[in-house]
Amino acid sequence: MPPALDIEYDPYDKRHECHGLSKARMLDWIKSFSDEVRRLTGRRPVICTTTHSRNLCTAAAAPSAPTTPFGSPAMTRRPGALPAGWSTWTLWQYGNGGTLPGDKNLFNGSLDRLKKFARGA
């Protein structure tokens, strides 16, 4: 599987809720991170962010779209709104309860497509 970058705001520190970065600087940081991951691994990371975090910290802009897979962590019945530039989601984090600990994630596609995605094809 490709690496993932989980971008979320800090709800506990209003002064630094976007990690002390302006929206433009956050987008630059995400792009730099994505470029470095691609340089080191040959693959772009999955960008995981909630609609609220994206609106708050990047003004709903789409970093690295559409070449970067998009993950939508939304503890709701369906994935959150897609950022501009994306036509579909790749992974959806839909819950963290149940008999197994940890987040629950759904891949948007068939098992064959998931295998190709995991191998980087």
UniProtKB/TrEMBL annotation:
<dbReference type="InterPro" id="IPR017853">
    <property type="entry name" value="GH"/>
</dbReference>
<comment type="similarity">
    <text>Belongs to the glycosyl hydrolase 25 family.</text>
</comment>
<dbReference type="InterPro" id="IPR002053">
    <property type="entry name" value="Glyco_hydro_25"/>
</dbReference>
<dbReference type="Pfam" id="PF01183">
    <property type="entry name" value="Glyco_hydro_25"/>
</dbReference>
<protein>
    <submittedName>
        <fullName>GH25 family lysozyme</fullName>
    </submittedName>
</protein>
